[in-house]
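Bug report (template v2)

What were you trying to do?
Predict the complex of my protein with pyridoxal-5'-phosphate.

What happened?
Run completed; filing so the output is reviewed.

Input:
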Amino acid sequence: MRADDLNTTLERGHPGAARMLSQLGRRAALPLGIPFQAAQSRHCELQATIGEITDGAGRPLGLHAIEECFRGIDPRLALRYVPPAGLMSLREAWGRHHAAPGVPASLPIVTAGVTQGLAVCADLFCGPDTPLILGLPYWDNYDVTFGLRTGCPIWTYDFYEHGGSDARFNVAGLAAQLERVRGPAVVLLNFPNNPTGYSPGVEVEDLVRVLLAHPHPLVVITDDAYHGYVYEPDILVESLYDRLAPLADPQRLLVCRVDGATKELVFFGGRVGFLTFSASGAAADVLVEKATTLIRGVLSSGPAPSQAAVLAALNSPDLAAQTAAVLDELRGRYLALKVALLAAGLRASPFNSGCFALLPLPATLDAEAVRQRLIHEQSVGVIAVPSANALRVAFCSVSAATYPELTRRIAAVVGSTAPKL
Ligand SMILES: Cc1ncc(COP(=O)(O)O)c(C=O)c1O
């Protein structure tokens, strides 16, 4: 379909999404290009469409050295192109994997990691006139994916409502930024959060209420990169998408869920992510086509062996047991880190999920200077988060046995940061 026709269809089916499109988003439409023409002729006896080197019956003339690396995967799957929107069976399987009753969802599109899903959202909806609203601190790559690439202004609010040990997610801060908005805006929410390791508890009800009540066109992106890694009761385990999408008024609100195998299935190098829209019918098809166009323009199509591996994992009868084992391991580390922090006299911001703990520093210490000292004096690598003057500790990548030593070494440089009892 031509871009004008797509936009008209979207205006009819999801006026809110249509009003949110960036200029690039409005122009995006798949040409009658090679993948499209090839798909139309896939049942033909003789196919001279795609530039793949095959035996004429669909088997690639693959090099033994490469085929050997993918022994468990049919070479017709591992070595051939997948469609720009990803392997259809994988899209369907991921859709089922995260389906929840009564939650509207487009067929997920496969992206090259969670990052590309975010970049596609940025391209579709962000621009110099559309602010991106983010809790501070946030994952630093958002500056590049959204701000640098699209020129959108980034409006921030403090992630926590206050600096205390019982602080919750700052719904009032987000609401105050939304009140400034007069036109289209994008809100990005990432739970479990990087870098804080926090997921909301009871405050999620207020959060949903604030987002649903916003009177102007709004896109909410849920970055669910750390989906499932939750260690305390009574906090948000399901995606915020599942709370918002069933209630989102298509006149105003589109919810985009970005997630992936990277952390959820512990497949960091696989580069398999997914993008799902809270739209259905023809409107969902339009958004999927526009997103697919952007992927085709940058990547042509994603990595087939990784997609095949994720599909195999989703079809594995003991997937739930395998992911539960990883969750158990991380929960154990989370509990062990809390003990070690206490013993070392270090204060962390409230955290209950994900992969990280954030250690705020007193104003007399500079996070980057402390990070340098930790490298050179203690042989400890952590991430400095200057916007919070804090250190981010990735407890997911250090074994629990070393936490007493890790925290001791950090305390040797920063001293005791825990409040005096
Ligand atoms: C919050 C957040 N979103 C997205 C990503 C990117 O995920 P991927 O590696 O799948 O692109 C990360 C990775 O660290 C992350 O922390």
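What did the reviewer find?
The chain has 18 helices and ten strands. The chain has a mean pLDDT of 96.
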